[in-house]
Amino acid sequence: SQDAYALATGLHRTYVGRVERGEVNVTLASADRLARALGLTAGALVMAAEGVDPPGAGPEATSGRPSRAPG
To answer: Which residues, 6 or more positions from 37, have their beta carbon under 8 angstroms from its beta carbon?
Structure first.
């Protein structure tokens, strides 16, 4: 749940909700806390949000091109 995620990040649940809705810009420190709670680095979180595979995730990952849906 959002409450459990907020607790894991150490950030207030209303702030986490505002981040999820795109209502606020996060600092690098907050992005790092959000990412770590998901088991990611801040860089991997940003890449996922942009639809880019992180390095080592497959052949496209080394090109830096956005990932494509199969099919």
So the answer is: 5, 8, 9
